[in-house]
Every structure is written in C-alpha cells, then in structure tokens.
Amino acid sequence: MFALGPLSFGAPLALIGLLSLPILWLLLRATPPAPRRAVFPPLRLLFGAPDDAETPQHAPWWLILFRLLIAALVILGLSRPVWTPPAVIDETRPELIVVDNGWAGAANWDATSREAIRLLDEAERDGRLAAIMFTANSGEAPAPLRLDRPDAARRLLATASPMAWGTDRDSAASRVAAARSDGALADAMAVTWLSDGMDSDGSRALARVLSGLGDVRIIEPDNGRAALAMAPPEPTASGLAIELRRVATSLPRTAAITALGNDGRAIARTDLSFDADSGIARSELSLPLDLRNRIASLRVEGPGTAGSVRLMGDQWRRPRVGLIDATREDGQPLLSDLHYVESAIAPFSQPARGTLDELLETESAALVMVDDARTDDARIGEFVANGGVLIRFAGPRLAARSDNLLPVDLRIGGRLLGGALNWEEPQRIARFGDDSPFAGLPPDATATVDRQVLAQPGSATPDRVWARLEDGTPLVTAVRRGRGWIVLFHVTAGPDWSDLPLSGLYPRMLQRVLGLAQGGPATGPANGAWLLDRALDAGGEMTTAPNSARPIVAANWESASASPISPPGLYRLGSATAALNVIKADTAITALPRDLPGARFAGLDGPRPLRFIAALLSTALIMLALDVVLALALAGRLPLRLFGTAATAWLIALALPLAPSAEAQPTTTPPPPVSDDSFALEAALDLHFAYVVTGNAAIDARSQAGLTGLSQEVTRRSAIEPAPPMAINVETDPLIFFPMIYWPVARDARALSPEAAARVSSYLQSGGLIVFDTQDADVAMLRAGAPHPGLLTILDSIDLPPLGPVPSDHVLTRSFYLLQDFPGRFSGSPVWVEANPDGASRDGTSGVIIGANDWASAWAVDATGRPSAPVEGGDRQREMAFRFGVNIAMYALTGNYKADQVHVPDILERLGQ
C-alpha cells in the first residue's frame, strides 16, 4: 500500500499509467504526413472555384484534454484510492488493538469492527506492524499475541465474534505481559483499547499493563449506544417488577421490554425510561398469574445482547414451597392444617415438609407457617428480606400473642361469630377489590367465616388489605418487607375457623399469593448434572450448544455464572428446566474509571475511510460515452439539435456519481400524499398497494418498508408486478385505485370523520380489501380482556358485517399457498374476516382482514433488499409471513377464484403430498 498523507492506494502500481499521459497527448495530436504535390493539367479548370471545405490537421485541444482526463480517471480508479483521516498524527510505533468482545460488546460490534479495520488500514498505510487481542475467552486456545503484518490481524478480526459472556481482562493482562516478556511485542507501541465502556474485574490491571507499552487510547460506545442489562425480575402483587441497568450517562434514554411465550407470541409489553445521570430504569409488568407463568423470556426490543434477554425456567412456574412442620398433629396428620395447604398448592408448586433448618437449606421460594408451626426464629425475617414469601395462618396461639412477622397489628383474642354470646351471623367473603392480587376471582358464597383474628384499628391500611369479609373486616392482609412479602390469612389453614379451606376458592387464592414467589433455585434433583439444551448467543438469540459447553454439577448450579464452559441458556436435569442468565442480582453496571493508568478516552464515532474507486470508474465510463457523442458531432454525423440534447443528458448523468447518496432512514416520516390529480394519475396508471399514514414516523416507515418487501416478493413469486407502494390519507385521498390497503392501528388512533368513514365504507362495498393490523400480538386483549382501543375507535364509524376467525377452508388459506397459520413478526394471534362473506354482496369475499401479528415488520426490507426488522420465529416464520402476504395480494386481485370447485382436485392432491 502506498500513501500520500491520509490518501492511500490499494494498487499503487497502477499509478505508473499516469506516465503514459504525455505520450497519449502526442499520439492524439499526431497527423498524417503532408501529401506530395503532382501537376494534373485538367485541375486548372477548378482554380477559380470557391473552396469552403475545412479539414483540421488534428483534434481540438479541448477534446484531447477531455480524453486525457478519461484516461487519468481510469488509472486513478484502478489504483483503488482511499482517503483515511488519520487518528494518530505521524505515528511510527507498531499498533496494538485490544477489543472487548464480551456480551456488552455485541451491541456495537459492527462499529467496533469498522474502527479496528480503520486502525489496521492506517498501520498498513504507514508501513507499521500490528497485533490484535480479544478480551473474552472463546473456550479455545487464543491465537498467539505477536506483531505481524496488519493483514494477519485483519484476518483474525474477520473470524472473531462477540461472546455471550463477559470479558476476562485479568487473563488479557497476563497475555500482554507474557508477550512483552517473550519479545513478541515492542517496548513502545500505539495502544488502542476498543472497550465496551463497562468496568469489570481486571480493568485496572489491563490498563496498567497496556500503559507500560505507551499511552492507552480507550474508545468506547457513545451514550445512546451502550449495552443494556436486565436484572432478575421480582414478582409483585400484580405481575413482575423489571429493572434495566446501564452505564449512567448525562443523556436520558427509553427502552421497551416484551414478554414472550414458548411459541414466540408476545404476552405483555412495558416501557422504561432512564433519567439523565441515572443507570437504573424500573417498570412493572402487570398481568395475571396464569399469564406470568407462560412467560418464557423477557427481551429488550431492538438490537439485543445476551445481557438484555432474561430466560425464565421452571422455577418461575412451579415455585418450591416449604411447609414448616407443626409441633403437633393430634394423631391425625391427614386432617391437620398442613394437609389442607399442601393439597391446595400441590397442582402448581413443589411443596416440601420439613423443619425450618431443612427448608432454609433447600432455599425455598416461599414458606408456609400454620398456627401450630409458629416460630419466632430471626432467620425467617432474613428469608423475607432476601425475597422470600412467608404465608401465615391464624389460630389460637396467634390470637393469644402476636409477633413481629405480621403485616398488621392484631387484637388479643379471636373474634367469634355465631356463638352463644355473640349474635352476629357467620360472615361471607366480600368482592375482591380491583387493586387486590385476588381481583377477578369470584367470591364463593359457601365459604363462610366463623372465627378470625382482628387487626388493630389504623394498622390495616387499604394497601395492606387484600380480602375482606362482607362486614368490612380484613380476611387477608399483606406487607412488603425488603424484597419479600408477609401474607396473613386471619383464619386457620384448616376448616376449624372457616369453610374457606373446603371451597374451590382456597387453592386459587393461594396460587395468586405464590405468584409473588421469585422462584428460588432451580427445582431439579439434588444429584446429577445440568446439561445445556439451548444456548443464548451474544445477540440474545437461542442457538445450539457450543462445543465448549460442559455439564454443571447440580450442587454447583447456584454459583454457576456465564462462561465458555457454562454458556447462558436453558439447561435440563431430568424433567426439570432451569435458565442460566448473564446478569445476576448483584451484577453492577458501571463505567470504566476515568483514572485508569495512562488512559485517554474517545468516542466510537470516529472518522470513516472514503473509497473513490466506484465514483472514478463510473465517471470515466460516462465521459467515454460522451466522447463518442462529441466525435460524431465533430464528424458532422450528429445533427446539432440532437447533439445538444445528448450532451445535456450526459452532463446530468455525469453529475449523478458526485451527488450525495440517499439512503432509507427508518425514522423519517414518508412524505404526505398529495391529494390532487397527480396523485390519482399516479395511482391509476399502475398497480400499487397502499398503506394508511398514521402520523407516527416509525410506524409509517415500517409500513412503507413492509409493503415494499411484499411487492418485491409478489413480483418474484407470481405474474403480478406491483409498483412501489403509495401512502394515503383516508381523510383526503381517493381509495378506489388500490386493490389492497394496509392499515396499521395504534392504540391512540383517532376516530374517522363522517366523510372519511363514508369513503372507507364505499371502498369496501366496491370490492376493496383493507388489512387492519394492531401490531401488538393481542397484548391489549390478553392484559385487559378487551379489544384493541384504537381498532374499536376506527371500526365504530365503518359499516362492517359480523366478523369471525378465518375458517380452515377459507379462500384466504389457499389463494396461492396452502396455509393454516398467518404469522408476521409475532405468531399465534387470531386473524378475523367477515363471518358471512356471502351476505355482503361482494361475490363471496371478505373486505377486511384484522389481526395483530405485525405483518409489516416481517415483510419490511431495507434499501438493499435485506430484512430490516427481527422476527421472533426466525427465517422460517418470515417465510411464512411472506407466503401469507402473497395470499393476501392474490386474494385482493382474484377474490373467490380459488373457491371454484374446479380447483378442489388439485388442492386435495397437494394436501395429500
């Protein structure tokens, strides 16, 4: 490589061709030898004739310069020039590049790789040696650290990838020290540390070793691009409390977390916001216990890392519950209070009886203490403070003397209902409040309370009372202590004081209470070893287990952390499943200290190299074509008028390579459609799919990219060739020109004006098709039990017939591909069409398709034609989404064509295959 300052040439020998330009100048100016004169007598008759012919001796000078410029551009293009702004001025020392390739580095791996390549190119241009080292252990023997040609380091970088565990900077420091002592590194070097921006064990040791080689330039991600880490979630009375961590910066930041089930379907979603100078953001995911138990993972939306994903194991579905043995059983253990509790919780937990010492050793997620098992051991308070759940039941002993492990202060003595000295009737359970964890459970009219312990006035505040009797006295109270909960049933666990343990409401209430349990340790056998079933890669996606993975002994499971031999992922031991995640409760996310030895910090958004080969050769090709036009014009073979037109066209084409490139920006709002004759003319002259503009830049850009991808696939797979999609405003634009309209529906969608509603209804009646997509995987339905609010707002003003799920024999399932599922970015949500299309005077077709699977994201492509949005089910689900999109297009254009009986034999034969 040859360099002239920041300008370097990948093929410098091609520059020798510039020496031929003077020779080319002479050749272009060369003329044939002058003709010899011969006297021919008859020519004397022509002596007086006018002579207006002009024959130049050589080409015009400006044309020669033009052709020399073409040759110079070709020579310069073949020399592969690159403009690289220097990061180090006049650097002569060898280059050492240290790259953090742990899970946190995955968030900016592309930018980090580009920066490393830029540094290696700079070293190659300066004729310096280079070495590269990665700080995360891959599980294999690392490549020797030694100085070599930059091309060798570039090959190592090309084969490297981020790991799904953290960095090991102590080992990296030892490698650098060993290489220096062995003479593999120079005593003075230009050291660049491409850091992930997070502090960890060994950061100071690595900086100290690197500073012994020279000043250390640490390049770290910018504030808005640093990795996010998800702490272990904590159960709450209404769902899960989620905490995200980051390196505290001066800029605020927002993020969204989606809870996914085993089938990839979104169950719930919540937004979080980091305040300026804050490294922690919290939010609560509100959802019922049965939905919480279906969560397989929690994921931060957008480009992910292994630290921004939280896998959930069996411990979140069947918590281990310890039943403290009672001091007496009255000789009838099957009729004891513990028997009723154990029978009630056995279907949804793993109950185990034992002494307090035994139960604390097994690290249960919840403890149950009946009145006969009452103890004041201080270790129970520590258990609750560390996140455990203590469920207590009242009885004669508690009525006689209270203690500190209670959510409210109790009166001494029990309340007797229906006794000889008490004229009150036994009380029924009142309706549960909306803020109670028991909300939604129907009270059992047969469950009456004869006796209970009462709370002191003023201590049973509304936030501590979860259930009441019809007379307003508390039945169940609870309080948060530290990270855990104390829950008190003011009756006995057996039927001595109430009929509640004999009712079907009893196990359902206990199931809601155990929803507060954090799960505790993995609930597998005590012996054996956990085997990795599916691993989590650095980008947060599930993959096969790497070769470096080893089984984890069951006794060592709780102390295991993510590493090459124990990658994060889902592990199995017998029938039990447990999740090993990167981030633990005590994992601290802090910035690299600014006082590291010899360190100076810089941002990752550094200068980028500019390559000119394409622009130079394209310009030369255009100029060469223009030279042909000029030659024809000078020879008189091209009329002047055509010459001017051609010259203008070629000058415009010449300027195109020099114009700034326009790339698709996903956050840019598409230009609003123009409602005039030009819009109607454009829409009518070609086949376009359309999407409704919502005013949200992200949603509109996604709709445009989605229909662009769908149009390309329809063109590739069928005889239909749709033009690029068009944006429409239902309030102003005509809809009749479009066979299919994609309508993304936001939760805050506005109601249609009467004119727009009439326009939409007329479009549907005339044979149009509208695909309504709420893009939320029915989260609104799952969480609130009600349809999407934005969809209700829009459909309220449109004249629609009754709707129903797509039947298995609907034309939409076979209009092009044979399908029974209709996935998009999400899958599993029902898709709705007209329940009785035959009654809609539309030739047996439905005018609407309503779903929530976010089809636009699955169809979306970028400017290069590559998918631009993630799909939960991977490439297979994206392919099925495209097939459904093709079916929609064919359905919109052909209607009930495939419903004709003539197609039945072919369809049956295809199904048989």
CATH architecture of the largest domain: 3-Layer(aba) Sandwich
Number of strands: 40
DSSP helix fraction? 25-40%
Q: Helices and strands: which structural class?
A: alpha/beta
What's the structural domain tally?
A: 4
Q: Distance between termini?
A: 60 Å
CATH superfamily of the largest domain: Domain of unknown function DUF4159
In percent terms, what proportion of residues is strand?
Answer: 15-25%
Structure description:
The chain is of the alpha/beta class. It has four domains: 2-31 and 56-84 and 614-655; 95-225 and 592-608, von Willebrand factor, type A domain (Rossmann fold, 3-Layer(aba) Sandwich); 328-514, 3-Layer(aba) Sandwich (Rossmann fold); 677-912, Domain of unknown function DUF4159 (Rossmann fold, 3-Layer(aba) Sandwich), CATH 3.40.50. Helix content is 27%, strand content 20%. It has 22 helices and 40 strands. It has a seven-stranded mixed sheet, sandwiched between helices. Strands 5-4-6-7-32 form a five-stranded parallel sheet, with helices on both faces. The longest helix has 22 residues, at 613-634.
What brief labels describe this structure?
27% helix, alpha/beta, 7-stranded mixed β-sheet, 40 strands, 913 residues, 4 domains, Rossmann fold
